[in-house]
């Protein structure tokens, strides 16, 4: 592969031409962590990337160990090769004020409405409006150019809602466009839909090698395809290492693992209990081996299920010390090495 730190170098990536990477996944799969790693991976080599949060959880601030992020695009990290990652925590109320000013010139009125709580009331009783605002703000960042005509960001990564809500979230502008026949709302919705449904967008799923996250991922991919939305890849997160060879795993799965032989080996190595016997230790270790073999087999089946979706799959390791800034860079490099970014 090309040197990932070489600014301007060609990249081996499965997503050439994609500028909006939407990251979704079942709760607990590490969706925000993967989104952050994706942003760092895309920024490597001197690129400028915007990482967007849409759920108001301040998850980006937590994974980067930063204070609460404001509703403003702010640089939060430097990637290998001098790239930059900016972050934006979208606030629907602030986005609505921007929308009123942009399309209707109602900045003062919008602030007056905000003071009496009308904006919060409107976005609360119409949750679809919140989705339109945050997808609209993200799409604007994808399309934005500076005065010289250069794109403001080389790529945008969205830490999106969970898998169970992703299709409705991304498709809400289509529904709004159907309700509003003419005018700025109609035009705005069509612009957003034009970005989200285009080849410039890919929706990536984060999964664990467990039954429920895998099934939800497969269901989500099927729903995206049915809605005509662009499916990206699958990031298998928190993959645990396999410690034993295949013959040993097979023996454990088939109840052929010899704990007596293990006891002899332990005793020869001087690993015994207070009575000088190694049998009890061997029995406990045998159970551990059997459980490990069962887990490996289960994960193998779940991995095959994910592969049946027919999209690229990437694997990120379970970090023993948890995910800190150094861990994010490690995950980002793993994504680049596999061609995800």
TrEMBL record:
GO molecular function, one term: ATP hydrolysis activity
UniProt superkingdom: Bacteria
InterPro entries for the chain: ArsA/GET3_ATPase-like, ATPase_ArsA/GET3, P-loop_NTPase
Residue span, ArsA/GET3 Anion-transporting ATPase-like domain: 20-177
Name by which UniProt lists this protein: Anion-transporting ATPase
Source species of the chain: Thermobispora bispora (strain ATCC 19993 / DSM 43833 / CBS 139.67 / JCM 10125 / KCTC 9307 / NBRC 14880 / R51)
Taxonomic lineage of the native organism: Bacteria, Bacillati, Actinomycetota, Actinomycetes, Streptosporangiales
């Amino acid at each position: 592969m090309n040197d990932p730190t070489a600014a301007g170098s060609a990249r081996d990536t499965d997503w050439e031409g994609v500028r909006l990477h939407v990251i979704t996944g079942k709760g607990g799969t590490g969706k925000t962590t993967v989104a952050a790693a994706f942003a760092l991976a895309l920024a490597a080599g001197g690129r400028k990337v915007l990482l967007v949060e849409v759920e108001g959880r301040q998850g980006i601030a937590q994974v980067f160990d930063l204070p609460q992020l404001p509703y403003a695009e702010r640089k939060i990290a430097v990637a290998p090769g001098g790239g930059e990652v900016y972050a934006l925590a979208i606030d629907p109320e602030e986005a609505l004020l921007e929308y009123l000013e942009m399309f209707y010139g109602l900045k003062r009125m919008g602030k007056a409405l905000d003071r009496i709580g009308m904006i919060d009331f409107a976005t609360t009783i119409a949750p679809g409006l919140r989705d339109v605002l945050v997808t609209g703000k993200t799409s604007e960042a994808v399309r934005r150019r500076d005065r010289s005509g250069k794109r403001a960001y080389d790529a945008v990564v969205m830490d999106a809602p969970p898998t169970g809500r992703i299709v409705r979230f991304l498709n809400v502008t289509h529904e709004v466009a159907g309700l509003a026949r003419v005018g700025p709302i109609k035009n705005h919705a069509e612009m957003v839909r034009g970005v989200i449904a285009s080849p410039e967008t890919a929706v990536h799923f984060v999964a664990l090698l467990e039954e429920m996250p895998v099934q939800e991922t497969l269901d989500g991919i099927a729903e995206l395809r049915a809605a005509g939305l662009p499916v990206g890849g699958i990031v298998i997160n928190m993959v645990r290492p396999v410690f034993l060879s295949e013959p040993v795993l097979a023996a454990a799965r088939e109840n052929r693992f010899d704990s007596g032989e293990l006891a002899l080996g332990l005793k020869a190595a001087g690993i015994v209990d207070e009575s000088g016997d190694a049998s009890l230790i061997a029995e406990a270790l045998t159970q551990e081996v059997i459980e490990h073999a069962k887990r490996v087999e289960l994960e193998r089946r779940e991995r095959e299920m994910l592969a049946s979706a027919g999209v690229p799959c990437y694997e990120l390791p379970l970090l023993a010390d948890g995910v800190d800034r150094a861990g994010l860079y490690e995950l980002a490099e793993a994504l680049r090495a596999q061609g995800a970014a």
